[in-house]
Amino acid sequence: MAENAETKTQRILVLNGSPKKERSGTLKLTRSFVAGLTEYGGYETEFVHISALRIKPCLGCLSCWAREDATCVIKDDDIPALRKKIEDADVVVFCMPLFFFGIPGTVKVMMDRLLGMVNPYYGKPIPTDGSSLHGATKPHPGQRFILISSCAWVEKDVVYASVFSQLDMIFGKGGYLALTTPQMNAIVYHSNGRRLVKMQANYKAAGEEYAKTGTVSKETVDKLARPMFSNEVYQMFYENMWRKPNGEYLLNEIDKESNR
User: Fold this and answer.
1) Each residue of 69-113: pLDDT tens digit?
2) Of all helices (H) and strands (E), which one includes residue 165?
3) Which of 6, 109, 118, 169 could form a disulfide with 134 if both were Cys (CB 3.0 to 4.6 A apart)?
C-alpha cells in the first residue's frame, strides 16, 4: 500500500472504458476486485464511465507541453475535471475490454487528451532500462495503476501486445499491474452464470491479495488468465453464436463443463 495509507483515506478511481457501462463483463470483474481491495478499509472508490463523458479529440497542437501548468487548450469538455480526479487518485484502475487488438477508441481519445500529464519529448533516445518514455509532470508519490481487461481470445501475449506496448511506454515496464481474462462473452452469458460467479470470486481474492501485499502474484495473474472452457467447447460456442439467428446456443454442451 502507499506510504500514506495509514494517515488518510486512499482514493480509488475506476475508469470504465466499455461502452456497455454497467452491463460490461469487464466491469463486473473490476467491481469484484475493488470489493476485495476495499474490504480492508481506508479506501473510497469512484467509478467513471468514459463513454458517458463529453471528450473532444486531441488537436495535436502539443501546446499543453508549452504551458507552465501543462493544461490542454480545450477547456469546454470533461477532460479538465477528469484530469483532476486522476491526479488526486492513489489507485487508478483502467477497466476496458479488448475489441480489436488495441485500446478501445473511447479510452484512447481520453488518453490522447491527457498528454499534458507527462513530460515533453526533447529528442532524447528511448530509455533502455524499461522506464517511462516521458515520466509524469506532477508525480503522485505512491500512485498505482492497474489494468483490468477481458477479451474473447485465449492467446493473451499475442492479442494484448499493442496494449502492453503502449502502457509500457507511458508507465514504464512494471509501472502497472495487468490482469486479463479470456473467453469473457461465454463466461458472462452462458453456463447459467456459474463461471462468472467463479471468476468474480477469483478477482475478489486478487483484490484482497493486492490490499495485503501491494501486488498480485504471478500465480494469481495466471489463474485469472486461464481459459474456463476447453478449446472444443469454446469453438462450438462461437460457431453457433454466429450461426443461429434466434440467439439459441448449445447450452447443454457448455454446461457439461461446468465443473471443470
Assistant:
1) 999 999 999 999 999 999 999 999 999 999 999 999 999 999 999
2) helix 161-171
3) 118
Q: 170-190 b/e with 16+ CB inside 10 Å = b?
A: bbbeeebbbbbbbbbbbbbbb
Pick from 212, 178, 217, 223: which is nearest to 38 by CA?
Answer: 212
Q: Are 172 and 3 in contact (CB under 8 A)?
A: no
Nearest Cα to Cα of residue 110 among 170, 155, 175, 66: 170
Cβ distance 147 to 178 under 8 Å? yes
Rounded to whole angstroms, the Cα distance separating 64 from 74 reads 10
* 3-state class (DSSP) for residue 150: strand
Q: Rounded distance, CA 147 to CA 226, Å?
A: 17
SS3 content of the chain, % helix, strand, coil (to 5): 45, 15, 40
156-206: pLDDT as tens digits: 889 999 999 999 999 999 999 999 999 888 888 776 678 899 999 999 999
CB 57 within 8 A of CB 232: no
What would the 3-class secondary structure string for 35-93 be? HHHHCCCCEEEEEEEHHHCCCCCCCCCCHHHHCCCCCCCCCCCCHHHHHHHHHHCCEEE
Q: pLDDT tens for residues 122-166?
A: 888 998 898 999 988 888 889 999 999 999 888 888 999 999 999
